């Protein structure tokens, strides 16, 4: 017998099956199938692989899609015969305008085999334009099922059909389902924790009156006839409510333990919001985005930690939230009042309208409100030039951010409309003595300047030397700057660093350091 | 003073290792908790492989400790640099394993036995990357896999899977 050299031994095939399955999990379907063609051992490894995930993306041709379904059906039948368990069954197939009853038969059989092998997760994403695929009843009695994700199919079931006793997560997207069927379905899922409903047009009244264990709820139903959303779940901690029809009545005030609430593109009113917030005292995270009917928001909460108000056309915002840590706002300048103590993260994206008279005054006034509690401020202004405070105003007004330590500024447009040195000068008027300042802009790649600044004492005007900003007691940055350490980073749009340049400018070595600093910026327009 | 443990390889070599480093291994952690590990901890892993395992564990340990010590200031840049360093280290580690597949498979088995999920996933990903996009014949050559199908069987298999490889 021929003796094999050590480097000729097939060690990979000798690995335990679980390890080979682990390796397969990192491969694409195509590569997985290819390994099954290596040898009998590998054929067996694929045969027992517990996650069957088939996606249409690699099947261009009509015939291919049919063959794929046929192959899938045969594979699952063989596994069924050998009593091999399936953990996950995922099928994503785009049939477009093709339709053949055979396709439905294949899919339904696969689902039967999956359920029979105690599947834990089913994910079905179907695109049939001509006829919706109706889910076979067997799926509703899959006691082992933990997660069910459906897209593009039709559900029909009676209350007695449903016995999803292990189901924790259900997601329905573009699924044909009516109020009664959904009610039957939910009633048969005693352990459901996570429910996601997206574009299910058949729903008119979405009522979850006692979803005992429900924790996370998301509804996104644009363009539907949904008239009412009512959730009464004592364990619901997260609710995302997005893009409901204008007339839809939303009632979530019974979710007393709600901690996280996202409201996106809804026609909610000031009164609705006031009422909801007064009923939800445990709310910690609130995001209100594009709810353009809101005018005046008044929030009073001891628990709120994170508040986002994004593009809402507000005129007034009053927050009595002493424990707030993160505040993000995008929109026009507003009348703002708060009793916040210390924000760890503050983002202001302010928008200046075409004929926004008194813009600079309003912006300065708003930013000044954050001076005491926002040590880190991220400021963005659209259009970019609206952050350049005119010289005459700098002479008469007080700089708004006198105690901020870190200022960040990102430009909105992909080209600079003014010299960078003008921007630097204006930002250092807005925040006269920050420890760090960063300016970022996008011009084919990302450019970011980070400046670490140190100053000569005193920072307050004591007479003698001439003052350029006569009205306020703080010395302007040009008079007291001592040292600047600057880093210029160039990154790709994906954040990969291309180049980093460092500069250090010192008042001892560099004489007129303001000029030198401006010269570095002067090259960039 | 860090608590040290002595690990004994299958070929009787002793490795002195800090508790924090070896506790990444669920198997060893359990042995310690059960009190089975007074004195030397005997392991069914060769000294060559164990040295490699410990090299990985120390690198991981190093990473977590540094992250804990970081304060917020300047963290981004530091993290970035660290990520680059780790990437570089991992690339070197991978290249060595790719060059010597025996060590790679010994390490795979050891990480499975010692219950080191991060290392196991890393190695499985590494093998998967070596296989991805290759034709069966190339894969067989790379790992000395013998094609034990009869010509008829092979023909049937190719026909059955043809749909998956349409252009």
From TrEMBL, chain A:
Superkingdom field: Eukaryota
Protein name: F-box protein
UniProtKB/TrEMBL annotation, chain B:
Superkingdom per UniProt: Eukaryota
Entry protein name: SKP1-like protein
Source organism: Melia azedarach
Lineage per the UniProt record: Eukaryota, Viridiplantae, Streptophyta, Embryophyta, Tracheophyta
